[in-house]
Amino acid sequence: MEPIIKLENVTKKFPEGEGEFVALKNINLDFEKGEFSGIVGPSGSGKTTLLNIIGSLDQPSSGNAWVMDKNVAKLSHKDSAQLRNLHLGFIFQVYNLLPVYTVFENVEFALLLQNKSKEERRKAVMQALEWVGLENIPDKKPSKLSGGEGQRVAIARAMVKEPKIVLADEPTANLDATNAHAIIQTMKKLNEELGTTFLFSTHDEKVMQYLNRIIHLKGGEVEKDEIITAQNQQS
Amino acid sequence: MKLAFQLAYRNLVGAGLRTWLNVGILAFTFIVIIFFNGYLDGWNLQAQRESIKWEYGNGQLRHQDYDPLDPFTLTDAHGKLASSKSENLSPILIRQASLYPEGRMISILMKGIDSQQKTLSLPTEAFQETDAEIPALIGQRMANSNNLKIGDQILLRWRDKNGTFDASEITITQIFETDVAGVDLGQIWIPIEKLWEMTELNGHATYFITTENYQHEKIEGWEFFSKEELLNQLKEVIEMKSASSSILYLLLLGIALLAVFDTQVLSIFRRQKEIGTYIALGMTRWQVVKLFTIEGSMYSLMASVVGIIIGTPIFWYFATNGIGMPEYVTPEDMGITIAQRIYPAFSIGLLVGTLALVVISATIVSFLPSRKIAKMDPVDALKGKVQ
Predict the structure, then answer these.
(1) Distance, CA of A94 to CA of A145 (rounded, Å)
(2) 3-state secondary structure at position A98
(3) Chain A within 8 Å of B375 (Cβ-Cβ)?
(4) CA angle (A232 as vertex; A230, A235 as ends), nearest 5
């Protein structure tokens, strides 16, 4: 089976003073459809940069990053926007909800960009809110939500268009243990029910215990690529 | 585009007070621009109407030597027109004279006019209703400045065609009210037949007022000025006035646009994460530029709606009741025709033109800072790191 994400010698450099900082060095990784994987590592190890490249928000300095058979290194702004709109969902550490929109409108946003009809949008949004257990508060503004609720809205927003891949950047970093478990369980459930590929960047042990695969990054390089079997998880 | 409007509307309504402050100042500007222009248009229309009614008729056929701005031309600027060519023309003869009210001497223009004429609103029919030796019409301003009233008899001294002085008493038979200083101050109107007799310039005229049916053919020694040409001077003065007033409302518009510009710059800085999120959710950078530009121009659209709602009763009130000019503002002070009460004229063209001006300029000042988004790195935007 063709991998849904394929990274070939991905290197990312950023200018730093007179020289440059190498955030990622020759990364070669494949991700299959339906994976529930995490990229872990200390701060500055390149987790978020890798996620941004896969999410076509950034481009590698060299190498190729194939996402849904599209090389993000060579996509135009318009094509990468289309890739994100149709196939990618994002969950951010600080939720990034649009402050003037209600819960319903935040979740609806991605569907507006897809020109879905009002009825289709309403059904899909309510379905997504049900997935995350927020179907009772569609009219609340983000400022009135708790941290856990905010992140669940972000999950609903990422999932409402039923994307092939969801990229979650430190999704539990701002949550307490109870909410972190609840959030990660919700995502795990969606991964199992809808077959969506989830890719996390995290250093949260609570997240790691749910992952099927953990890629350890250190200094921009893959230190270890660990497949977690059911046996591993139990132990 | 529909989506951009939909999102922009949501963003603006969601932004609350910030939106309404911008809308408020733009709406105020919108109302002031329309009001000022409507006021000047009203003044212009009234002044044109009054000038045609009292002074210009449908045009003037002037003796070639006559210059209304040069009194020295009056001595020789007169002539006769063959009766075959004087159809639809009403003669006016102007001579200089001196009037002696209450023992003082004032220089005046003595104007002879056909008592049968109907083209100008001067009440010349009064000549036919009096048996005074030399009946005279004067304007209210002339009467006020010289303390004259109907029935007064005042000594008049003039020269005939040979330069010989003569004098007689005239009787004020009618005092008319007009906003046109050009037929009022420093002048008296008497029957032209009488003036011909007094000056021995039988059949002569300085100029002719033309009626609607007049068809002009070139006549040697005479120059025709159409109604439009005569109104040009008036229009030029009002346009000049309009240009100077426009400085005021351009300043006002500038302040309003600065508020929009400032809001946009601040918005782009403060809403970096939002911009990054839009891009992450699948918008292109130019779609976000468009969204922010439309947000800015929607201020002006909302301001227009607010301006129309608030402005309509104000415009209606002033268009109906007019704006009274202070007593001391007179046509002679202003140098052109001005009524004591001006009724502003608010045309559809003025409304649409002002709307277009406000919307286009707000769109431009919204677009300028929004272009920065096109160069923004979405990753930096998501982190809020764009400087």
Answers:
(1) 13
(2) coil
(3) no
(4) 110
pLDDT grade, residue A231 (50/70/90)?
A: low
Task: Determine the Cα–Cα distance for residues B179 and B163; give it in Å rounded to an integer.
Answer: 34
SS3 B245: helix
If one compares B193 and A232, the residue with the highest pLDDT of the two is: B193
Is the CB of residue A98 less than 8 Å from the CB of residue A106? yes
Q: Which position has the token pair 């970093």?
A: A173
Structure tokens given for A32: 């299959």
Query: Could you give the C-alpha distances from B370 to A57, B103, B269, B289, B351, in angstroms and in order?
Result: 20, 77, 10, 5, 28
d(Cα B128, Cα B193) in Å, to the nearest integer? 12
The DSSP bridge pattern shows strands A36-40 and A197-202 to be parallel
Say if CB A199 and CB A54 are below 8 A apart: yes
B274 vs A52, A85, A98: nearest CB: A98
3-class SS at A212? coil
Phi and psi dihedrals of B377, rounded to 5?
A: -85, 120
CA–CA distance, B362 with B259 (Å, rounded to integer): 10
Alpha carbon of B381: minimum distance to chain A alpha carbons (Å): 11
Count Cβ atoms below 10 Å from residue B377 Cβ, excluding itself: 16
Residue B238: the pLDDT is: 76
From A133's Cα to the closest Cα of chain B, the distance in A is 22
Q: Can you give the pLDDT at residue B334? A: 62
Give the 3-state secondary structure of residue B187.
strand
Neighbours of B18 (CB within 10 A): 13
Q: What is the pLDDT of residues A41-92, one digit of tens each?
A: 988 899 999 999 999 999 999 999 999 999 998 999 899 999 999 999 999 9
Residue ranges and CATH numbers for the domains of chain A are: 34-56+76-234 (3.40.50.300)
Residue A11 burial (CB count, 10 A)? 15
Cβ-defined contact of B3 to A113 (cutoff 8 Å): yes
Side by side, the strands of the sheet bearing A19-31 are A19-31, A5-16, A62-67, A70-71
Question: What are the tokens at A78?
Answer: 């318009």
In terms of CA atoms, which chain B residue is nearest residue A58? Answer: B379
For the question of whether the overall pTM of this predicted structure is more than 0.90, the answer is: no
DSSP classification of residue B215: -
CA distance to partner chain A, nearest, from residue B327 (Å): 55
- Joined together, the tokens standing for residue B384 give 């809020």
DSSP A228: P
| Rounded distance between C-alpha atoms, residue B273 and residue A191, angstroms | 27
Interface with chain B: mutation pick from A48, A79, A96, A115, highest number of B CBs within 10 Å: A96
Q: What are the average pLDDT values for consecutive 10-residue runs of chain B, which has 387 residues?
A: 80 82 88 88 87 92 91 90 82 94 91 92 91 93 91 93 91 92 90 94 93 86 91 81 79 86 87 92 92 90 92 92 76 65 87 89 92 89 78
A177: contact with B, CB 8 A cutoff: no
pLDDT at A167 (0 to 100): 96
Instruction: Tell me what pLDDT residue A1 has.
Output: 67
Give the pLDDT band (50/70/90) at residue A123: very high
Look at strands B207-210 and B153-159 and give their pairing: unpaired
| Angular region, B81: left φ>0, alpha ψ -120 to 50, beta rest | beta
Side chain identity at A11, as an amino acid letter?
A: T
Is B17 strand, coil or helix?
A: helix
Chain A's closest residue to B8, CA to CA, is: A100
